[in-house]
Amino acid sequence: MPPAGGDEPLAIGYLFLLQRLREHLRYRADRGYVDAAKLIADLRAEVAAQVEAGNVDGRMLAAYNHTTTRGSHGSRAWQK
Fold it and tell me: What are the residue ranges of helices labelled H in 31-79?
């Protein structure tokens, strides 16, 4: 769910980059790279902090959860 307004094209670009980086981290975690698993955990903690601060609404969180859990290839590091 991209934000609306004058910065929508820029926000969509950032969302695309974030999705690709998360996917790359997931593949690295699947291969056993500890640094990738830590970055995934850090990202999840930051998302949780943003939700608690009220900066992320339920629809955005649902979209985030959908994109981070699909195609996880069984990686335990990603599913924790």
Answer: 34-52, 58-69, 76-79
Question: Higher model confidence: residue 10 or residue 77?
Answer: 10
Predicted TM-score (pTM) of the model is 0.62
User: What's the CA dihedral at 69, 72, 75, 80 to 10 degrees?
Assistant: 0
> 21 lies in which domain range?
8-79
Q: Chain-wide mean pLDDT for the chain?
A: 76
Residue 3 lies in a domain: no
Please state the domain count of the chain: 1
71 domain-assigned = yes
Q: Is 72 part of any domain?
A: yes
DSSP summary character for residue 3: P
